[in-house]
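so i finally got all the pieces together for this one. its two components total, 600 residues if u count the protein bits. some of the lines might not be protein, just check the labels. i wanna see the whole assembly predicted at once instead of chain by chain like last time, that was a mess tbh
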Amino acid sequence: MISLIQNEVIKLLLKKKIILIILLLLIFISLFSYGENYAYNKNIERLENLSSDLNYDWKNLATQRLSDLHRRLDSPYIPEEGISSIEIEIEQLNYFIENNINPITPSAAKFSVEFVEQGILMFIPLLIVILAADLVSGEFSSKTIKILLTRAVPRWKILLSKFIALIMITTIMVFIIGVLSTVVSFIFFQRWGFNEPVATGFSLIQGRLNSDYVVFLKRFQYMILIYSLTWFVSIVLASITLLISVLVNNSASAIGILMAALISGQFLQYFLSDWTLVKYFFVTNLNLTHYFTGSYQIIEGMSLNFSIIVLCLWALLSLFISFIIFNREDVLV
Amino acid sequence: MFNKIIWPILSFTSIALVIIFILGFLFSVNIDKGTQKDTMDITKEKDTFLDTNDKSTEDEIDNLNIVILGDSIGFGIGDKSNKGIGIRYKELISKEESNNTEISNFSVPGHESIDLLTLIEKNQNDSTILKADIIIISIGGNDLNHLEFQDTLSLDIDFKETIKSYKENLQNIINKIRRINKEAQLAIIGLYDPYPQEETQKTRLILQWNYETVLIANLNYKIAYIPTYELFKYHLDSYLSSDEFHPSGEGYQVIAQELFDILNDTY
């Protein structure tokens, strides 16, 4: 079994897709971080022009905000649910003031989190499709499937070894995304920012943002959480890609089908509030990280748990179907 | 080469990463669960919290009582000396008369008109409102501000809906206050335009908003409308605080002065 997996990993590596993916990542990450750095510098320039002083004084702004927040805490009329969010903001501002960091300064860790948060809907799925779309269908197109199936191993073992190899490479790919986005953006920003305090754990109760159960995390811990969610999404997508790859006997149509699903899924989200069926579609649930950032949910009834369950069901179902089909399929090459 | 070096590295790192990711994943699911569980407790706690509050304000009858209701501007966000409209107004009055002035500020930064309505319909501040001689209301800025995120096409429709609900809420707020206190002088602070000239469409909306507020103020008994748009228009630099949205100390002083000029006989 292990030698089978080894064999599949070699095949995946030999196709040089990892190198293509790394190149794509390098191009995109350097473009984005250059852009963010550029926009940041422009912004600072604009703020300096706006304020009459020569130096744009963010510290003054932050201390003013801090004293406002402290005063809010003292007021007995502030509703209880607002208090913890005020405390969080105070803690964050204190960190920025103590370390003399302008809150809007970009840092490598922040960029890396933002990069996957933005990429989790399209870019990362795209990379996985590139990686996995021809896993099985490629064997058909290049007619190597005959040689593979004539070995004295049951078919399910072959598919399983392919899947395990895919999981390994996907895992390493998520890791590479994290490392590359952090390191490359560090070159631009010159700041790691791993220890910045981040608040997470917001929830929505009756349409209102509740921040009573907010958890405080260091930026690097937060990074691990976000990347774990990204990893989970990647594995689910890998399973779905595997199914398509088994169903379609040629790599080009496999990529086409998956891209069509991803793009149409984005469009379907517009109907989400009226058409509840859409929320069971896997593309709608890909954006797991946004449950964490405190931004409001798209629709009532969708939560992190809901999305995870829906994604799990999609993954299990597609694995189940692909194993059945791969076992029964007539190979006519 | 592959069997000896790459394979062990690959398998080891991927297994280690899978473990890390699974742990992180479980942790993040747990964080989310924690937030969903105890929502019932919060509402309970909140109620008892407000109850105890109420009792502490029941004293002194003879003074001039000022109640401030509303949002961050009523609260005094941006004022470096932490005075806000209330204390600045009090200072202006006490120049002339020497009576005691009690200020109760129920403002909550970020409140919209609907929040203020629910706040006073809880009846928890009734005793304070009953004693009030002057009630200053600053509301609506956040209602209008929420439109910011919409695109221009839907802006007009949204604006109409927002202003409609704002008018209803404001009228209900006034009715509610009047049911508790028939004689207090009410003062509604108008909206100013914190944005520089660039956004003409917003200016139009603010003016329209203020116009509706004036109409409501004039339809009801003993309500003064305190214009701020005209006051701020050419002094944004000095009247706005460093966040470029809330008034600065000077800005609050000007609003308080306007309030004083309108409500009190200065000559």
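Residues 2-28+106-328 of chain A form one domain.
The longest strand of chain A covers residues 197-200.
anyway lmk what u think
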